[in-house]
Amino acid sequence: MKIVVVGGSGLVGSKLVDRLALRGHQVVAASRRTGVDAVTGQGLDAALEGAQVVVDVSNAPSFEDPAVTEFFRRATTQLLQAGARAGVAHHLALSVVGAARLPDSAYFRAKQVQEGLLRQAPLPATLVQATQFFEFMANIIPPGSGREAVRLSPARVQPVAANDVADLLAVLAEGPPSPDIVQMAGPESFRLCELVEWVMYSYQDERPVIADPQARYYNARLDDDTLTPRGEAVIGRTLFADWLDGYLSGAIRLPQVHHPDPMAPAQSPRPAQATGAIGH
Ligand SMILES: NC(=O)c1ccc[n+]([C@@H]2O[C@H](COP(=O)([O-])OP(=O)(O)OC[C@H]3O[C@@H](n4cnc5c(N)ncnc54)[C@H](OP(=O)(O)O)[C@@H]3O)[C@@H](O)[C@H]2O)c1
Q1: CB-based pocket (< 6 A), ligand 1
Q2: Ligand 1 centre from 178 Cα, in Å?
Q3: Taking the mean position of all CA atoms in its chain, how far away is CA 264?
Q4: Domain spanning 2-134+160-188+228-248 has what CATH number?
């Protein structure tokens, strides 16, 4: 089967491309670095020609409003329209568990826009939602140094290995579209502050961590059930401790991608430049 993975060079995308190729599919890893821009539509028709399945695991380069919303709105619209034109039989897109429960976050609002477009897709589509990847959790140590305390939400998280998500996506890509959202989470749940403290400890970062229910995550306040799945979910097999051992020993490497800091305070959108303004 010809399967196009949009965002095929990314964290989960590169793992999915490897798995689909091993399963004998003709896989196209589509992203800007291979000449395919989902936002402008450049290269999309050529990439999708003859494809049966498209998996969208692209991600926005900026997590700020309005750029992030524009990214998911334009990319999702372009991909669905190009898929319908090419006669694609199944479009899958990866979103985040709890996207609809974080209206204060620009990123999660943008994911809701993507999910809304998926629900009205002009071709058969499956929405998959995963919790935070281990890889992402290992990189969210807040900036700072010395003994300066770090304040983090004690809300529950249930992260999952990107490998396990890629395994699930590979199986779903070979199957029929699902009318229901497919949720995936890891096998264990942690308090966010404890998990990050554990990772910090592994890096010999000994700053005290304070559990603060008001601490923001992508500018949103979290409750215990904000980022964890409700109802049925596929549960990954990999344990965080095993994954972290592999990561810290260098056995697990991450692709070169930019993930904005979820603990950073939200920036206000840059004011539009006045036309005809005098100056530089
Ligand atoms: N990371 C997590 O913890 C997590 C958890 C749950 C769900 N998700 C979801 O999973 C998806 C993938 O996340 P990720 O962390 O694997 O992403 P990532 O590592 O940041 O990779 C992003 C990918 O998108 C591509 N891309 C960016 N702009 C593009 C454009 N205009 N056209 C085509 N491709 C473009 C990038 O390649 P180029 O730079 O070559 O364009 C790259 O391959 C996201 O939708 C995210 O919401 C992520």
Answers
A1: 6-7, 9-13, 31-33, 36-39, 57-59, 61, 75, 94-96, 111, 130, 132-133, 136, 257, 259
A2: 22
A3: 17
A4: 3.40.50.720
